[in-house]
Amino acid sequence: MSTRTLIRGGLVITAADETHADVLIEDGRIAALAAHGSGPAQSWTADRTIDATGKYVIPGGVDAHTHMELPFGGTFASDTFETGTRAAAWGGTTTIVDFAVQSPGHALREGLDAWYAKADGQCAIDYGFHMILSDVNEHSLKEMDLLVEEGITSFKLFMAYPGVFYSDDGQILRAMQRSASNGGLIMMHAENGIAIDVLVEQALAAGHTDPRYHGEVRRALLEAEATHRAIQLARVAGAPLYVVHVSAQEAVEELTAARDKGLPVFGETCPQYLFLSTDNLAEPGFEGAKYVCSTPLRPAEHQAALWRGLRGNDLQVVSTDHCPFCFTGQKELGRGDFSKIPNGLPGVENRMDLLHQAVLDGHITRRRWIEIACAAPARMFGLYPKKGTIAPGADADVVIYDPHAEQTLSAETHHMNVDYSAYEGRRITGRVETVLSRGEPVITEREFTGRSGHGSYTPRATTQYLG
Questions:
Q1: pTM for the model
Q2: For the chain, how long is the longest CA-to-CA vector?
Q3: 87 and which of 164, 261, 263, 416 could share a cystine (Cβ 3.0–4.6 Å)?
Q4: 3-state secondary structure (DSSP) of residue 175
């Protein structure tokens, strides 16, 4: 049975264009666009018609950095693939790329299979995986080639977290050399973890145990130093590099300098670095623990550099690094010792709305909003033009967005499985109204109409962003 959906009367916004067009969807894909009121558009009939008059019609968001069910710091991220992908849909995101984790001493395949099992049949929206390399050796390097062939085309390495995920410069160089030959993209958590551990030890010895010290020991200069080092190692290997969750002005400057040389170096930032700051980490009592993530929140003056990087394309992507831990019982593990607070913030539901607010605040244009939230992540991670745009042949991942609706962000009303909001009480303008995933309604006029298991695993091509 062929099914047809017609979206009439909206302003279609992609990274390239803004057009008043009707959108015809057939069998889960975009079939055609035609000017609203034109002959072709008026001749279309459909099983379901959505009136988007006065609304935006935008591609579903692509969140290329999430951590559902991640084991960390003696606990697990509180969102499952079921709850996390449902919350993503509520926020207008229709594809996530999560991270499968290799445990030290184990094969990549073992970690990947564990994540396939966690997600299978649970997701409300489509999903893919990156692979975290925790143990770079001859066997795991060979496995990288096999994973690229099956659509796992990006690999994350950590210069932070010694004893957990950390890789030394030699291991990083080997993995980069391998990615240079197999087409994979290395994603880097760039912080000097060895130096940070010294500062953590010294802070705790001095009795500095509150959450705000998490931000003080993870110095901006140690993010910048690691970013610089990662860039130089990638140059030696002849490999492209994607630096995750860039938070500091000095790190942006390293990326900008590399890109000015024409190097294939890319950067991502996250809403928390654009909208929150060390003021949140310093909230009284233990409230600051809610905002502990790594890289850490920075003083507010760093935000201008991040917005400038996004406008000038020295930062290409905004992802969430969604890794939620409940305040009660999880974040509280670090009472009396900030180094034991699980690192991570909830945000998968808030990204598209916060970036729309940034449009209204004059930080970015509407098309740039769609670029950094939909098209660029899809291109960066081999999902374009199936995802990230509204064009004939693309998956019908479409959001009807009301740019005038006002909302107040709050844990009372969000759908993430976590007991606080990082943006509690923030008033913003713009809200998701209806979400289609491959033509199927997941959110219908602010009602969840999707189901677990609709989301399908999506293998990815190698990065399409190098051209």
A1: 0.98
A2: 75
A3: 416
A4: helix
DSSP letters for 399-420: EEEEEEEEEE--TTT--SSSS-
83 three-class SS:
helix
- State residue 2's pLDDT score: 74
Structure tokens of 217? 């020991």
Look up residue 186 and give its DSSP letter: E
Determine the distance from the C-alpha atom of residue 224 to the mean position of all C-alpha atoms in its chain, rounded to a whole number.
21
Give 449's DSSP letter: -
Tell me how far apart the alpha carbons of residues 266 and 232 are, in angstroms, rounded to a whole number. 13
Pair 131, 155: CB distance under 8 Å: yes
Q: Do 87 and 416 form a contact (C-beta atoms < 8 A)?
A: yes
Check if the beta carbon of residue 389 is closer than 8 Å to that of residue 105: no
Which 3-state string (H, E, C) describes 95-135? Answer: EEEEEEECCCCCCHHHHHHHHHHHHCCCCCCEEEEEEECCC
C-alpha span between 75 and 79 (Å, rounded): 12
pLDDT tens profile 198-208: 999 999 999 99
Dist. CA 225–CA 453, nearest whole Å:
43
Q: Average pLDDT over the chain, rounded to whole?
A: 97
User: Residue 99 — φ and ψ, nearest 5°?
Assistant: -115, 115
Query: Residue 240: is its pLDDT beyond 80?
Result: yes
Q: For residues 369 and 356, give the distance between their C-alpha atoms in angstroms, rounded to a whole number.
A: 7
What pLDDT does 1 receive? 64
Q: Is the dihedral of CA 158, 160, 165, 166 positive or negative?
A: positive
Q: Tokens representing 161?
A: 């977290």
List phi, psi (to 5°) of 251: -70, -40
- pLDDT at position 72 is 87
Two tokens at 44? 């279309």
The DSSP letter of residue 311 is: H
Residue ranges of alpha helices (H) inside 269-335 are 271-275, 278-281, 303-311
